[in-house]
Structures are given as structure tokens and as C-alpha cells.
Amino acid sequence: YLEDGVEERNTISYNLGAHIHLLGPEAPWGNGQTTQLNYQSVDLTLPADVTAAAFYITNMHNNIIGNAASGGWAGFAFPTLHQPIGPNKNVNMRPSSRTSLIIDGNTAHSTGWWWKHAGAFYIGGALYYDADGTTLVYNAGRDQTKGNRSPCKVDHCAAGNCNAYCQPYDQYWSRISNSKAFLVPGPGLNSWSGRAEIVGYESHDNGLSAEALESGFWIDNMLSHCRTGEKIALPSGGRANDMKGDGFFWYDTNQEHIITNSVFHNCGYRDDKYNQYDTLPDRGCGIDTDIDSGCSSGSTVFGFLTHSDQFNPELMQGTKNITFKDCGRRFKLYDFRSSPPNSTVSGRNQNWLDTDGTASGLNGPALIGSGLDDTGLWWKVDDEVIYDPHGPLNFIKQSNGPERGLGHIKVWWDDAVHNEVGVTVCGNGDSKPCPTLGYIKHAGEKFALDSGLPVTANADIAGPVGGYGWILQLAQGAPKSMKLELIEVRWDTPLLLHVQYPPGTGFTIEAHAAWCSTNQYYSCIETFQQVGSVAEVRSSLGNTYYVNPTTGILTVRVIQSPKNFVGNPEWLLPNNNSVGKWGNGYAIDRFERGGVYLPTMSYGPYLQIDANCAAGSGGNQAFCADSIQSATVDVCSAGYEQVAYDKCCSKSNPLLCEFADGAKTDTQRP
Q1: pLDDT digits (tens, 9 = 90+) for 228-275
Q2: Alpha carbon distance 19, 70 (integer Å)
Q3: Strands (DSSP E) along 605-655, which ranges?
Q4: φ, ψ for residue 310 (rounded to 5)?
Q5: Which of 352, 389, 394 lies closest to 370 in space, CA to CA?
Q6: Are 397 and 356 in contact (CB under 8 A)?
Q7: What is the pLDDT of residues 529-557, one digit of tens each?
Q8: Which residues on adjacent β-strands are paired with residue 248?
């Protein structure tokens, strides 16, 4: 029991904690991610005792080795403290920013019964002083202000500012290794905040193997044994069917999760609708046959949260070397609303980098995207895309093109519209209307008749890149100004954006860095130069544009620039190894583990596109006054026809093909 947060460099090893008693009137619980607050009082000296755990660790800079926990609100609790408490409250340190030592070989079971998010290993909850500076407050749930954990290699408190931002190159990942959780109704391991590496973790007969909300979370060598088939021992009033038996859920926004070298065993609901991968009679679990061992008709190996129009996925999830063993339903787009009126932005944008095809079963690098009907051909980029009815999802063979990848942008064109997101439109699972304001689709004749992916006031767009580009078409016409931000795209998978304008329109296009002052070493703003063709834009470093004089279609290449400079001092298209500002870290933030690379978006930098057209009137002031006649982007050479979002083949000789990057092939077209 490490109480004040200043306790460090201790070794707690090979102990048993059991028969735990909670203090206080009621154990914290809630229907969402939050619980009620508990305050210090004469009857509750430490409000965190309402969630008493076998092992209570307020500072991870300790060795926690080979211990066993049985019972408790959680087995191992790691609450967030932004300052020490008690007699040490004035010690100049931040416990939640301290790096972990060895946390290895621990086991927890038969715990977490009071709240569905309380894990056997629970990295969550926040303990802090109220405004009076003397009364302790404990929030057992997810606290997005007092509960943020940011382990850092640099002691900013010693430097005089505990609130200083931990730069990416100073960030630290806490590690929990060779640990085991079983018989937990919720997650075996739950982390609300804090970069972490979970290595050699086993989960048996839990409601959910692991839950994590963090921009940088790696799970390696996990055994997720969702159902062992044994009868589950339950407390009084417990029901086995309330323990779903899920593997892992991808979160909905602003995350980076990587899972590698992991096995999922007997996870997922067993039903004839989900027998495409496995038909064994004892695969997964069944609500009729596994009454005592636990199951739910909603059980899945991998789940995606798709209830929101407000909070949507970027490029957040990647896997390598995934094994399914005797599993039922493998994938599920999950909208918790009982009768959702329509699909959501988050549902349509779902994506996943399956680096070796073991998750999709393609046995080669694959891109996974949403399979919802109203995504049109957005994820159906060629005729070899495989539809998965479980999610539903679409599986794309990445090797079918030389530059295939995933990209994300967020588009702004009218603040009056976008500022209503989460207020009157496009809410977070509350069924606010989120009407379609336009569409985005792939360039070329193959996709000309496709409506594309709906674009709403919350214009988050994630999709396949490396092809002939994306065409943005808004219902009210050509936007007079556009801002592109939260960009995620690799340097070697080009993203072209095409937008049609009235012919003769001129443009000012600039890339802006954040937290930047131009000097002899670094530039902060880059003005794009006009070139003579789409091909020149595609092959450029990302600081050019082209306007078709006949159709008025504007083409720009969207790249992910460094957060705090655009050039050093000349414009830079950064690659995987480009060095960050002043030689610190990398130019592009990323999360990379186990052979999986995920670019990380930056808040602040943006690409600004301003058209010099006359503004419309009334409700169309954010758009050009002149109307436009719909036109297409020609992508194929004469005598060729488009067969994929990145490929055209000869009409007379289907073996002769060309790709979006200009490469040619004489292999069979897809």
C-alpha cells in the first residue's frame, strides 16, 4: 500500500492479497466511463479506500514482482496523482509522471465486480486535493483533467514546472510483463491513461481481455483465452452471461494501439451467421450452451466503437502475427444504441493496418476498412476486395498496388457549420442529426457513378491512399476557404485531394506550422507553387498545386508536415528517419512497435486553401458564387481503363497495366 505517492524504488514481491474490504457507503460505479466522486471526511480519511485493492500503487517507480491478488474493487490499482498527498503533499514531484521499474509476474483474479470497467489491473482513477487545498477527492473512473498520466524521462518538477509538456522524444512507456488475470466480469486489464507496453499478458474467462485509452499502447505476446469452458464461480447474484467474453475493442478517437504476436482462443459468439472462418461446434461461445461458463450474443474477438458522429477514428490501430484459435465472431462494429437511426461517421471511417494479413486472413499486408453499406465504393478499391460479414468490414490487398496505405484528414470550410458539432448536430451517441453535406470518392471513371463516402459537418475523413486521389464534392458548391488539419499519411503513400472550382479561379495555398518562429534554420509557412499537371503534383514534395484550365479542378498533394516547422529552412517532405527540430526526436510523431508503424497526428499545423472567387449570398457565403458543372478527373492513358483506385489496364491487352505512380506492369490485372 503506497499511499502518498512519494514512495519509490521499493520492491514488493511474492505476496498474496485477499479478502479485501471496501470502505465507505458505496463502491463507485457508473453507466459510462465515469463514476461518482468521493470526498475525504471524518469517516473516510482516504477517499480512494472506496475502491480498496489488494495492491494500491500510487507511484510506478517501484518493483512489483510475483504478487497475487484475489478480490477487491481491483486487484492491482494504479491511481493517478499529480502531486503527493498527506504529510508529503508539498514534495516537489508528480507521481503520475514517474517511470516504471519492474512490474512483472503478477496475477489477479475474482475481482472487479462493482463496476464494468474495473480491471484486475486497473490503471485509472484520480486522487487530488479540492479547491480548498486540504480535502482529498477521488474519482474512480476516467478523469480527463486530473487523471492524465504521462510518464516522462525528464523530471520537469525538478526543473521548476511540473505542468510542462513531455516532448515525444522524452516520453516513456510503462511496462507490465508476464502477468495474468482471470475471472473478472469486465476487463482483465484497463488503462484509462498512460503510455504502456503490456508484454506476455494472459487473460482467462474475463468479460474483456484488455481495455486501453491511450495514444501509444502496445500489447505483445498476449494470450486472450476468452472462454476456457470451465464453470465460472460467481458471487451471489452474479450471472455468467453478463461476462461477454470479448477479446479487444478498438477505441473511437485519438489513439494508437498496436497488438502483435497474440493469440485469441474461444472468443466471439458462436452462430451460423458467423461461420465463415470456423465451423467447429465448440468454437467461441454460445448463449444457450455456455450458460455457466459465460457468453453473450454480442461477444466478438475484435470490436470497434461506432456510436459517435463527434469522435471518430484516425489511423489508430495496427496488428501483426494475430492467431485465432476456435473463435466465433471475429469482428463487430458496435453501436451501443439499441436502434441506431443510421450509420455514423465513426462507423464509416473505421480502419485498421493489418501488416501481415493474419487478422484478415489474406496472408499478406492488408488494409481493413468499414463494410457499412453507405460507404459506397470508398473501401471497395478494386475487384479483389473481400467483404467480411462479421464486422462488416472490407479487406484490401495492400500488395495489389505499389503505394497503398491509409490516410486521414479533417476538413473545415465553414466555422458556423463545424462549430455546431456536438451541440446541435453530429453528437456522441445521442442521436443528434448529422446530415450529409457532400461526398468524397476516389478519382477516375471506375468510381464516377459512386456517390462515395458521406461528408458531414464533422468532416473527419479516413481512407485508402496511394491512388489517383480523393475528389471532394460539397452540396453547396466550391468552398471559398478550406483548412485541412489532423493529417496522418505516410510519405510513401501519396494523398491527392481534388476539388472542383469555377474555371479561372485563382488560389493561395499555404502550409502552416505550429509553435514556430521563422529563422535561418527553420521556416514556418510555405506558399505552394502552381505546376502544369496532376502528375507533377503527385511526384512533388507536397508544396505544389495544379488547376485544370477546362474543368477548374484543383489538385493538391496532402502531406504530413512536422508539427513545429515546414522546412529546414527549405520545404521538407519528411520520411521515417527525418530528424526533428533542433535535432530532437523525429520530424513526424509516430507510434511504432513490433514492426507496425502508425503516424501520429499533431494539433496545430494545418494546410490553408483560399480561392479568390466571389462569395455566394445568404447561407452560401462560405462558397463561390458561381456554380460548377460536374467533371471527372481523367486517370488512365488512352486505350486503358481503370480497374482499381490506383491502377489502369489496357483494353486490348489486360496484362498491360499502369499504376498511379506511373509504374507499369505486365501481370494480370485484379
Answers
A1: 999 998 888 888 888 999 999 999 899 999 999 999 999 999 999 999
A2: 7
A3: 606-611, 640-644, 647-650
A4: -90, -40
A5: 394
A6: no
A7: 999 999 999 999 999 999 999 999 999 99
A8: 210, 302
